[in-house]
Amino acid sequence: MAIRAYILLIITTLGWGGNAIAGKLAAGHISPALLTSGRWLIALAILLPFALPHMRREWPTLRAHFWLLLVLGMVGFALFNNFYYLALNYTSAINGAIEQASMPLLVFIANFVLFGQRVSPGQIIGFFISLIGVALVATNGNLVGILRLDIGYGDALLILSIAFYGAYTVSLRWMPKLHWLSAMTALSVGAIIGGLPFTAWEAYSGRMIMPDTQGWLVLAYAAIFPSIISQACFIKGVELIGANRGGLFINLVPIFGTFFAVTLLGEELFAFHIIALALVLGGIALAEHKPGQTQTGRTG
């Protein structure tokens, strides 16, 4: 079960890492709020025909948890993405990468404060080892550069966006047992509703950029991979191993984003990229390790 969760969470972070590149390619070709709302609208259109049979069968559960699913979609999909894209207009990519890596720590803290869930020393140490790896990438191999970062309006928005997704991750413990198509369709509806005010503000303020050819390609990628495939894998992965362990894999997102930048955008690969990847993977392995545990058979 754990190996299955690891595979799902790696697929999740691959999609989200690619989404960081898509965000760069979107600049000047489609505006952020329109990208966020559009990706979930397309995702809903793709999901709905396949989800309808499951939704009919699971309608009593969907109806009983309607508001929970709506809020989860608004918080985890709409609010996180909109504030994240907005924040990057006011802060640096270095700040964004480092602060995004703090999300697992927020999940740890929330689970401990709200539910009394124990955080092991291995998880804490593993988190900080992973964070060093992410910081190494974010500072181009110069960790001392972290000391020169300024915190401003954009950083506050970024921390707010990370808090929204941390809250969404922790709240997945209340996610009802649904087929993933039913769950993703319901969450997509929440994302669309939650994104409407941001899109309306963008249009009203004259900042909306309608997509050109490149904008449409980015929108299609964002709708299929990070919106559908990654989110579905993340939901299932967290369901299998829990929010504390699953949340730590989010540290792979900036690592994968860096490697996609090298392969797709032609950026140069340095030794510190390899070292950082080893640190992140090592941190995850340490957090996952349970001393004295042996494989005795099927679990779960």
Quick summary:
With 300 residues, this protein is an all-alpha fold. Helices cover 76% and strands 0% of the residues.
- Supply Rg: 19 Å
Quaternary assembly = single chain
Mean pLDDT: 82
> What is the count of β-strands?
0
Proportion of helical residues: over 70%
- Terminal residue distance: 7 Å
- Percentage beta strand: under 5%
- Helix/strand-derived category reads mainly alpha
Largest sheet properties = none
Shape: globular
Unreliable spans are 292-300
Which H/E pattern describes the elements?
A: HHHHHHHHHHHHH
Total of helices: 13
Overview of the molecule:
The protein is 76% helix and 0% strand. It is mainly α. Helix 1 packs across helix 12 and helix 2 packs antiparallel against helix 4.
Task: Give the arrangement of secondary structure elements.
Layout: H1 2-26, H2 32-57, H3 59-64, H4 66-87, H5 93-100, H6 103-115, H7 121-138, H8 153-171, H9 180-204, H10 213-241, H11 243-248, H12 252-265, H13 271-288
Helix pairs in contact: 1-10, 1-12, 2-4, 2-9, 2-10, 4-8, 4-9, 5-7, 5-8, 6-8, 7-12, 7-13, 12-13
Notable traits:
13 helices, disordered C terminus, 76% helix, 300 residues, mainly alpha
